[in-house]
Amino acid sequence: MSATSSQELEQAPPRMSSRLEGELMEVSLGPQHPSTHGVFRMNVALEGEIVRKLKPVFGYLHRNHEQIGESAGYLQAMPYTDRLDYFCSMTNNWAYALSVEKLAGIEVPERAEYLRIILAELTRLQNHTSLLGFLLSDMGAWGTPLMYAFREREKILDLFESLSGARMMCDYMRFGGCRVDANDDWIAGAKKIVDLFPKFLDEFEDLILQNEIVIARTQHVGKLSPELAISAGITGPMLRASGVNYDIRKIDKYGFYPRFKFRVPLGDHGDTYDRLMMRALEMRESLSILQQAFAQIQPGPVMNPKVKIRAFKPPVGEAYGRIEAPKGELGFYLISDGSANPYRYRVRPPSFINLTILEDMCLGHTVADVMVILGSIDIVMGEVDR
Amino acid sequence: METLEQIKKRIEAAVPGAKIDIVNNGSPSAQHSLKIDNEHARDVARFLRDDPALRFDFCSNVTGVDWLDRVIKKTVKTKQVVDGVEKDVDLTSEEKIPGYLEAVYHLFSIAHKHGPVIIRMQTGRANAQLSSLTPIWRSAELQEREIFDLYGIKFEGHPDLRRILMWDEFEDFPMRKDYRPPDDFEWEPTPHDDVLERAKQHYPARPTETELKPS
Fold first, then answer.
1. Closest Cα of chain A to B68: distance in Å?
2. Taking chain B, what is the end-to-end CA distance rounded to the nearest angstrom?
3. What is the pLDDT of residues B21-45, one digit of tens each?
4. Using CA atoms, how far apart are residues A204 and A210, in angstroms rounded to an integer?
5. CATH superfamily of the B4-67+100-175 domain
6. A58, A253, A324: best mutation site toward chain B, by most B Cβ within 10 Å?
7. Is A17's Cβ below 8 Å from some Cβ in B?
8. Sorting pLDDT into bands at 50, 70 and 90, what band is A142?
9. What whole-number distance in Å separates Cα of residue B12 and Cα of residue A39?
């Protein structure tokens, strides 16, 4: 926010000031609140309607994912990663597979890499679409945008279902490749959906992103400076909305991303509107990557035959692998002691770490803005609480 | 990016008294790490963040690791004279490493787009205490709280060290390798005195060392 508007916000509303000066009311927002995207609670101290303090409370969905991962074998942990961020099981699978591949030095066949990129970008499309729907729903655009978004998301989930057998819990990737091959019909079907997607995006942007109320509710709300964003480990669209050019697809060059031409959209102000726009712009780039992938993909094997994924025992050592998941940097840190299950299995969850600066972004805003800011962070409690 | 040896030398020159060891990683990932001592941890971290050639401004991943007491057996072949005849004899030596807790930080640089450099700090399993790096990298705030919650490492200098995922009344540290869950979760302690008293009988004793060894 600009200097003047921040000063305005720092002052309590005039009508209330006589009664509530110096008095703070503590309110518990959540865990059963429709705008907290799951069982997430915030203890807020309010002065009138202005947030003066905010402490996030975690753990309602905690099931010690990491310990379960340590007691399971390497392959057994793969379907369990679906349950982290249940919107993006494909990218969760990929991040885990990538880490194990780093740990054991496994190579992946070419077609499998292309399939992974196709699925990851489709995941990004459906995650960002549903995020926009949820965010508008939080702002009071009840029903319609969410239903429009879910209509498109459902088409992509149908693709996932026809390929892996499950809409959301896909469990599709393996270390050393992918579980099953996609036939030509599937590729043609995916291409059809991707061809039609820009039409939906145009319509959605016309309807929503130019909307006066959306602009009033999001511009200059929840501003995040690039310095704070970097220090707080913010990743993904949220970091780029603050104008920091850091996309792991470009930095780490994992998979076959160097073979694709795409741009990294950047924001100017780091406010909620930029974060909203970032998702819309990223979807355009994902569509471009998908079109290139459909043109480049060649037939071939999808599994490295040398990898014995059952009773898999990687060499002693450790590895940290990370990918650009739709919500930010998703990393897996694995330590192997040479046995059949990881000695240490750690998930670096993007939406958990993106919540570090929730308080900094919300201070001085109204309760209604807190919901919009929280929505723009894009959290999934399955990943936050693990 | 500079090699770890170069970084190690630069740190030792910049932070007098700092003890840095390179921990080798045998896996094909070849992500070696720097073990730094607890006393100079914050100075070393500040150097890594602020040095113009390194600029590790982004601390991505912070995590704890629990290592139990380990015995490493080394077999060395030597020649010995047994009953007047020279023979090859295997000599096994045992090195006992006491258990410790570890905090591991994965650092990347957004300014120079390089990384990772991995730093790790070690502390004993009883009275585990390390200096917090949250003042250097804000991203460690929630993750160090998580380590405190699940591993029981106290981070000195952390602004808000509370349990984060488990509830405040929970007593044990569930990610430690010798953790045994209570037999009945209904009897998890709540703030009520009588429940606390009755809960005690459902808590198992900590396993002994022989119980922990896989058969």
1. 11
2. 45
3. 888 888 888 888 888 888 888 888 8
4. 10
5. NADH:ubiquinone oxidoreductase Nqo5 subunit (3.30.460.80)
6. A58
7. no
8. confident
9. 47
